[in-house]
Amino acid sequence: MKAPIHSEESFATLDGTGIRYAVFLQGCPFKCAYCHNPDTQPLAGGTPTEAGDLVKKILRYKTYFKGGGGVTFSGGEPLLHPEFILECERALAGYGIGCALDTSGAVRLSSTVRAAVDASEMVILDIKMPDEARYEKYICGSIKNPSALLDYCVQTGKRLWLRTVIVPGINDTKEGIDEYVKFVGARMKGVEKYELLAFHTLGFSKYEKLGWENPLKDTPALAQEKLAQLQAYLDARIESK
Known about the structure:
Blueprint: E1 2-12, E2 20-25, E3 47-50, H1 51-59, E4 70-74, H2 82-93, E5 99-103, H3 111-118, E6 122-126, H4 132-139, H5 144-156, E7 160-166, H6 174-184, E8 193-198, H7 204-210, H8 224-240
Parallel strand pairs: 2-4, 4-5, 5-6, 6-7, 7-8
Antiparallel strand pairs: 1-2, 1-3
């Protein structure tokens, strides 16, 4: 099984627990206004790679995965390629290497997608907006598939982290955080960690290189102090539920 790989990072530390080998797959159905890797969006592109060849490369780094490390499939949207991921997961499991999925939940929860989720040790799910209207406005998609994946992970007891990018002028208020808490609702009981990420401008040059309009070109990066305040507020809201 082949899939297009955009890039790889052999010593990733922000994509799950421990030291991880991160695989960024090409293609994403969503077109987020704040996407910092717009070059991963087109399905055409990337380097076609056999699952077996990727597994062989990953095995060179096995000694670094001690203490909870492993492999993280990200993107783009990794679950556009569930058969490829499942083949890799099953092969890596034979060597005692666990895999995580860093996903936006953009794709339909097909039987193959469920199988890839089942074979993962954890899911990192990006909750982009708290309602359908803002998914349509800022993400160019629907909240239905992410919500279905959230339900599935909670129902099956999958180890689950949530993430949300905080963008100045869009969702950077305590009232905005309240809306995310309301959306997740009772499903929060199945969430191990909910992490807020700061919008940044490091990917702006990629829009210029692609010749694409950057819808947030005049938006400043979120200050780390503001991010810390909102994270503390979110943590307190979760603890009080």
